[in-house]
Structure formats: structure tokens, C-alpha cells
Amino acid sequence: MRKRIIPVRNFSKYSDYSVAAERLKNHPRHRDYLDQVPQSQLEKLHIILRDHMQGLSLEDSLASFRLDPEEDLNKLDDEELARKKGQMDTLFERNRKRTHDPDFVYDLEVKFDKPNQEKCSWDDESDDEF
């Protein structure tokens, strides 16, 4: 097994990570070595590099890749939102059941427990009118 060092040139903390990853993957000297590497993995490495250049620690940078169900996605910028949506799409496709899967069940019904809901005064008023 050989170790190969591939330099990342012309990349700053303001660079677009997807363009840089695509440029690196299509570079004539590195194309043969990066052919089997997914584009998303190269983008993730460029994001970690960019975050390091901006002064973030590795732990903070890796935390941005985790999906938090309590996170407010309305507060993210367009780039972060697109990345989170891409992660959700990947997770959905991984967990998706297809018709040819052995454990596929057509018309599956699942009953969920209702959480205890608090009564509001405006709910009581609207019931009387109908």
C-alpha cells in the first residue's frame, strides 16, 4: 500500500467547496487515484479544510455534518441548508423500503400513541360554534 499526497491548490476560506472538489477530482494528475472516491467525500474534506482555515476545531466542523432533529433549519444559510437537505436525502434513500425488498409490506398501518395535549381556551370556544 502506498501513500499519496495530493496538494489542494488555490483554495481559501472563501472558496466554494463543491467547485474545488470537482476540480481536484477531474485534475489530470489525480483523476486515476480519485476515480473511486465519491464526490460527496471530497466535498466533505474540503469543508473540513475550509472550516480549519476559518479557525474552527475539527470537532466543531464534524458536528456540522450531524443531523439534529431539534435544529432550526430556517436559521441556516443557503449553503448549509443545501448540505443538510442532501444529508437527509441520503439518509432517506438508505432507509427507504422498495417493493423488491424482502421485508417490504404493502399498506403497512402503524398506530402511534397520542401525546398528552394541553387544552387551550380557544379550542373549547371553537367547539361550541360547530
Question: Could you characterize the architecture of this molecule?
Answer:
By secondary structure, the chain is mostly helical. 47% of the residues lie in helices and 0% in strands. The chain contains 6 helices and no strands. Helix 1 packs across helix 3. The termini are far apart.
Strand content: under 5%
Q: Report the span from N to C terminus.
A: 75 Å
Average pLDDT, rounded to a whole number, is: 87
Cα-based radius of gyration, to the nearest Å:
23 Å
Measured as a percent range, the helix fraction is 40-55%
Q: What does the overall shape look like?
A: flat
Largest sheet: none
In N-to-C order, the SSE pattern is HHHHHH
How many helices does DSSP assign?
Answer: 6
Q: Strand tally, please? A: 0
Which structural class is indicated by helix and strand composition?
mainly alpha
Low-confidence stretches: none
Features of the shown structure:
flat, single chain, mainly alpha, 130 residues, 0% strand
Tell me the layout of helices and strands:
Layout: H1 17-25, H2 31-34, H3 39-53, H4 58-63, H5 78-95, H6 121-129
Task: Give the gist of this structure.
By secondary structure, the protein is mostly helical. The protein has six helices and no strands. It is found in: Cytoplasm, Cytoskeleton, Cilium basal body; Cytoplasm, Cytoskeleton, Microtubule organizing center, Centrosome, Centriole; Cytoplasm, Cytoskeleton, Spindle pole.
